[in-house]
């Protein structure tokens, strides 16, 4: 039986996984939405999970970052939502086995809330509730709300999770991709940590964006919360070479960045866009060195 992830974080640095989208794109398995691969290419999704497991991941994230009902509707996949969600959990649990943790990965809606956009609070919260109802069950050990940029949208997602599951471990990471460690909505790391610490959230952190912006925001977060921290940086910067998107960061650089983030307080380290099993292997070694 797996021990509580929150208990382990008190004494250990755990390792998340890497970029599912990067793996699927490299395999040519992405068409309308990365989560569609749970139905069209389940073998490739499973293979990616297992590759990150071999590299040292202890927390595997479901292939559902882009599977919010609103995003699925935009991609023409609204009717396939229940199958996408259930398949994602099954594939991830099978790869995780009995010893690794499964995190239900919930991303933002991809739309702006009123009054900045056309999405109503009721519609946004309902979308999070639908996805949570379908995904959260005995096969899931924790929830990860990742790549959020607006605190108001985080609050709706957290409310939906807690309405259905008051005690499941819940992590929130925000994407700091602008200038000196801000989200596209202008939220800096310190402000994010203060606001998120007021919510029933167990783990806070940062993911996506440039490694430099993330590292700045993460340091700010560490000064404004006593919650366990999580960091999942990109593998450098994206570049288009020969019609393909490649990432500038090397595995060695990923390991070095992970070591700095751990020194700054990270209790979970993993990778976001561009991160491969080779990158994650070096990050896992950095985590092991701190044990």
Throw out a few tags for this protein.
10 strands; 12 helices; two-stranded antiparallel sheet; alpha/beta; about 290 residues; globular
Please, could you describe this protein's structure?
With 291 residues, the chain is of the alpha/beta class. Helices cover 44% and strands 15% of the residues. The chain has 12 helices and 10 strands. The strands form 2 sheets. An 8-stranded parallel β-sheet has the order 1-10-7-6-5-4-3-2. Strands 8-9 form a two-stranded antiparallel sheet. A hairpin with a 2-residue loop joins strand 8 (238-241) and strand 9 (244-247). Helix 4 (42-55) runs parallel beside helix 6 and helix 7 (121-135) packs across helix 8. The chain is globular and about 45 Å long. The protein starts with a helix and ends with a helix.
Question: What layout of secondary structure does this protein have?
Answer:
Layout: H1 5-9, E1 14-15, H2 20-26, H3 37-40, H4 42-55, E2 59-61, H5 69-74, H6 81-96, E3 101-106, H7 121-135, E4 142-148, H8 151-164, E5 170-175, H9 189-196, E6 203-207, H10 211-222, E7 229-232, E8 238-241, E9 244-247, H11 251-263, E10 266-269, H12 277-289
Parallel strand pairs: 1-10, 2-3, 3-4, 4-5, 5-6, 6-7, 7-10
Antiparallel strand pairs: 8-9
Helix pairs in contact: 4-6, 4-12, 7-8, 9-10, 11-12
